Amino acid sequence: MRCSKCKGRASIELRRHHAAYCKPDYLEFFDQQVERAIHKQRMFQPNDRILVGVSGGKDSLSLWDYLLRMGYDATALHIHLGIGEYSNHSHTTTVKFAQERGAPLITVDLAEQYGMGVPELSQAIRRVPCSGCGLSKRYILNKEAYDREFTVVAMGHNLDDEAATLMGNVLHWEMGALARQSPALPANREKLIRRVKPLYTVTEREVAANAILRGIEYVQEECPNSVGARSIMYKNALDQIEAQSPGTKHAFFSIFLDRIRPVMEGAQEDFELRDCDICGQATTGSVCAFCRMWQQAHRKAGENSQRAQGTRTVQGPVPDALPTEDRPV
After folding, report:
1. What pTM, to 2 d.p., does this model score?
2. CA pair distance 41, 271, nearest whole angstrom
3. At 49, which helix (H) or strand (E)?
4. Does a structural domain hold residue 15?
5. What does the alpha-carbon distance between residue 46 and residue 199 come to, in Å, rounded to a whole number?
6. Tens digits of per-residue pLDDT, 164-178?
7. Which of 195, 206, 222, 91 is nearest to 158 (CA)?
8. Domain with 57 in it: what CATH number?
9. Is residue 320 part of a domain?
10. Beta carbons of 46 and 74 less than 8 angstroms apart
11. 288: pLDDT confidence band, cut at 50, 70 and 90?
């Protein structure tokens, strides 16, 4: 198999592009894809301060690596979720990446700052772990960006992620979510920071190839809480279609962005935002979803502790710094 550009020996074949590339040409191709996505969606400018959500996986580390190599002012935020060895490994990998490049890294420990990690939170509110985890990550990213005066929040979601999300929203006709799904959500509300996804045109396989060829060490195991998640089911279904018809994922998502979303976005109902009574972040009600969730979690945890001890105890205060339910990933 020959490289489509230099005719040398190819390292990777991209069926959806009807092309194959050697290592140097593939890395150049990958960077070009990300650059085009950034410019097409007008995600940010060279003078923007970018906060990158970094988990320790291939997607977020590849994105951070790209932004650093291109000279952007990119600081990473890593949230230690308290999911056993998986979270410890993710944190160690992220710290190592930052140290090797001398790059700025902010770490928020969920258990230290809010009283419990994802497993305990899930048990307290009696919801699947991904529910509280996703809401917590969205909130903390937005709040930290706002408090530290970043102008953009960048996420490492790839084409597979976006296509799977779109499939789920279409199958359940989640009209509000469909209207908001975009690789670039503007900061059109106070305290809501612009949120972008520069990897939305490259597949998970293509991101993995970039990470491997660039020698980026990343966490390869999946989050243990993702087992049985609907998003994985949607990804598997799309993978089967893609295998028979390369380019389906890209066509599915890009046509939605170009033709369907503009119509739906214009039909969105307007809503008024106010400051949350507890944390001050933007919300449609008096208390944001994040604060309500943590209030419930601490209340339930206190009740469980009372039952376990058989004595009356006083519930501790809800943490002061409790992002908004109104901003999707």
Report:
1. 0.90
2. 24
3. strand 49-53
4. no
5. 18
6. 999 999 999 998 899
7. 206
8. 3.40.50.620
9. no
10. no
11. very high
